[in-house]
Each structure stands twice: as structure tokens, then as C-alpha cells.
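Teaching assistant's notes for section 4

Start the section by putting this record on the projector. Ask students to predict, before seeing the second block, whether histidine kinase will look compact or extended. Collect guesses on the board.
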Amino acid sequence: MFFNAKSVSLLLALCIGGITSAFLSLIPDVSITGVIVGLVIAFSSSFLLTYFILEFIFFKEVGNIHRQIHELRSNQSATFDVSNELVKSSKNPISGIKSQIRDYAEMKEEEIAQLKKMERYRKEFLANISHELKTPIFATQGFILTLLDGAVNDKTVRDRFLKKAAKSLNALNILVEDLLTVSKIEAGEISMDFEVFDIQIMIVDVLEQVEQKAEKKNITVSLEVPNDDPIYVNADYNRLKQVVINLVVNGIKYNEKGGWVNVILQVHDNLVTLMVKDNGMGIPLEDQNRIFERFYRVEKSRTKKQGGSGLGLAICKHILEQHNTSITLQSEAEVGSTFSFDLNLVQDTEYENSEF
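Reveal the predicted structure now:
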């Protein structure tokens, strides 16, 4: 039986009417007609009184509680009718309220946990960005103050310190530009300029661009493709190039002399998978789930010597998300790392038709 005002009132009215008629039947002077009249009066009055109390006091207040919980959860006052129907159709309105409160409490616990997580990230971000900004600023300040203290008169020292100050300011500029790029992408202020192009040509352009950096560390960089056929994708050429440059440069930067970095393209079904694989220092398992966070560094003592803004992988992640794909990592410390992501493949016929 459903627990609502009408069913509960009917049940109580039948009980009261039955008890009243039973007592009246025990009185010798009361006729059958009197018993029936007593039954009808007792049933009607008890039904109306009970229905009024339950419907307009108890169930109405329960409905208000449901409505308020719904409004708190969804911030939509239109849920009033739905909540009333929920109360009236519920087998046990009290259980319904308990369920609503439990769900609401769980939702709030999740929100609180998320807020605590965001607060932790905010504190880490402020600490990291303060540290990253402080390093080039203090370095530049030190060089300039040294020159002001009299070193400016020594041409050799002056030129050397000015070059170092310029280098620190350049690092600061790169950091600010990368930070602005991440912020704009996250805010949706940077749109992707999609076009169809052969991804192999873009990768060759990247490898030529990093060739000098690789030669300085005696790192071999190479491209591995399934065949000589063009591989067309629809993407933002410059942004995707930025992603590949970041991944390849990281492979060079965090590698030992004589190592290698291999860019691999694999075509399967309607996708092309781009992998950047190296045999460098690798990334420990405990750091892999945070490696794409802003300013996160695996080993600050080692990576700090390599330079960089600490935002490269975060930028890669956001750019690829704008391409409706995600970057994955497979790595083992002291063995190497493989970064990979998928892009939709554009068939040759589709590209030719679009050009025509």
C-alpha cells in the first residue's frame, strides 16, 4: 500500500467506523439503522479529519522539504510539482526524505572534497609561480646591481653580465607567454585554426627545427612512418606543431648524450597515432598522473638545470583537448618515455574533393 493522505485516512476511517459500529451493536436499544448511521458518521468524520490533517499539515510539509532539497540541488524552483508527486507516490515519504538528504549530503561531500582539492592546487600553483618568477627576477636584479656597484666600468664584466641579464629576462618572457597561453586556452579565448595538411611534412619541419639542439647533446632524432603515402589530418597546424616540438624537445632535454628520440606515426582504421618515444631518464610512476599539471616537475634538482617554464606539457594537454583528443604517457624511470595521442585521419579522396 502506498503511504499518502487518502490511503492512510481511508484505513483509519474504516478502523474507527468499524469500532464505533461494533460498540453500537452491543447496545440493546440501538437498531441496525442506528448502527449504520453511526458507522457512516464515524467513518466520514474520521476520514475528513484525518485526511485534512495529513494532507494539509503532514504531507504538505514533507512536500515542502522535498521541494527545498530539490531546489538546493538543482537551483530550479520548477521542481515543486515533481517533488510533490514524488511525495504522493512514495511508499514511505519519510524514507524519501532520508534518501534525498543522504544524496544531498553525498553531493555536498563531493563538492567539499573538490573544493579542498582545488584549494590545494591553488596553493601549489601560487607557490610554483612565485618560485618560477623569482628565479629570473632575482638573477637579473643581481646582475644589474653588480653593474651599478661599479662593474659597469669593466667592459668585459659589463658585457658578460648584460648578456646574462638579457638571458634571464628572456626566460621570464617565455614563462609569462606560456602562462598567458595556458590561461587563454583554459578560458576559451584562443580558437583553433583547423586545416587539412600532411602531418609528415609538419613533423619533418619540427625535426629540422630541433636538429641543432639535438646535435649539441649527440641525440639522434628520427621519424618512423608506415609508408611514403601522405597522412592527412584536420588540425591547427601551428598549435599541433607546438605540441610536437614540446614533446621532442623534452625527449632531447631529459636524455643522456648519445640517446635517441623517435617520432612514430601509426595509421589504423580512421585514426593516426602520433608517438614521441625516447630512451631518456623516464618518469616515475608516482609522478605520471601529475606530469601535465602547470609547473609540476618530477625532480626539481635535476629538471631545473634544464631550464624551461614548466608549462610545456600543460600547454600540450590543453591544445590536444581542443582537438577532441587526449595525450597519454607510458614511462619507466631510467628506461624512457612514450607520449602519444590520436587524430582523426582525413582520407585522400576527402582532401582532394575539398581542394576541388
